[in-house]
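re: ur question from earlier - yeah i can do the single chain one, its not a big deal. heres the input i used so u can compare w yours
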Amino acid sequence: MTLRERAWGLAVDALRPLLPAAGLLDPKAAEASAGRRAASSALTGWGRSRSSASPLLWLHGASAGELLGAAPVVDRLRGDRELDLLVTHASPSGRDALSGLRPDRADFLPLDTARDCRRALRALEPSALVFARGDLWPNLTRAAAGIGVPLGMVNATVRPGSTRLRPVARGLLRPGYGRLRRVGAATGEDAGRLRSLGVREEAVEVTGDAAVDRALSEAGRSGPDGGGAAAVLSRLAPAGRPVLVAGSTWPPDEELLVRAHGRLAGDGSGAGAPVLVLVPHEPGPGARERIDGLCRERLGREPAVWGAGGPPPATAVDDLLVVNRTGLLARLYGAADLAWVGGGLGSDGLHSVVEPAAAGVPVLFGPRGDRWEARALVERGAARRVPGGEDPAAAARVLADQLEELLADGGLRREMGQAARSFAEDSAGAAERGAALVAELLDGKESRG
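and the output i got, formated as tokens:
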């Protein structure tokens, strides 16, 4: 144990009594705090009662996106061997990934203290512990390595501006990265940054990101729960009207999109306004109230709503629809003419651009999109990065101009969509490579030299 790791563990232990207070103003943080404080005991009890003789794979991801990106890897493994699966997450949103992973057990990740981690690991006795994308924790890696549990990472990504690359975080996390036996990096650039964080040269290889494989699979689904979502959207859009699906939106995205929509709908020029479909990143009553109020203020009317557990609107919408539910976004892109991906205007971080790309849809997003996939799509002419700025009205004018150009030029949209789909197809195959990497861990093989 390094001095920094020891200090980290002592700090987490000392702050444990204060964690309930930290979540008083944020229900999501309060739920995560309570879940993580209870997780060690819950997982210990499950581990002690577990009777299965199959190997146990422990998969951890921060939230739903990271875990769903690893689902194709898990599917490949299950096709080759008997396997039990434990899934943990740090955010409550991680539960949204569980239907796609079908774990034998799911829970929050225990607090990162030596005591909590050792207790859970000794009861669970996993055959391997694998991190999805990058949510690595110091004491968890140390406790796992201490009892001989092989550690790995799939779809591993470190963004150029990641806080993990800063000196203090790097010093704390470096020993944990050094304990990883096998790491599948999304890109060569990610592999270089992972090495700078302490991953051994012989442990890392470029496998790609299996989230692309999942996006291609979702884009190709045509069952009642898959193609049905796109078919419903096609039915709701007035004939001849283009559709802009805005996925995983946050308030800054919604403000910009509704302002731009108002400009297109109100000035009578060009192709006019598309049907705007807003799919908030965190659906629920709060999201509906927020978007209803925004549309009343900016447009003088409220949108139609397709809510959780309810049917879609019975008749065609005029030009505004909120899909206030989870699980449909990847397939809704299949009915879109254009896509906006949220998170690139604020501090939340750009969300998945591979889902609309796999559906062959031109992609737009805000200026803070530092994902490798976003950069690649822009380079291929499949996506556009729309400037933000301090002046919301000016930013809305820029976006409206971009939308008007694309809506008026079907040939350009087709070219961008084909380039987006080609990017996804060229980037496929990470699921198989990631599964081979995890299989080595499950079989107890050391890193290849």
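The chain has 19 helices and 14 strands. not sure if urs matches, ping me
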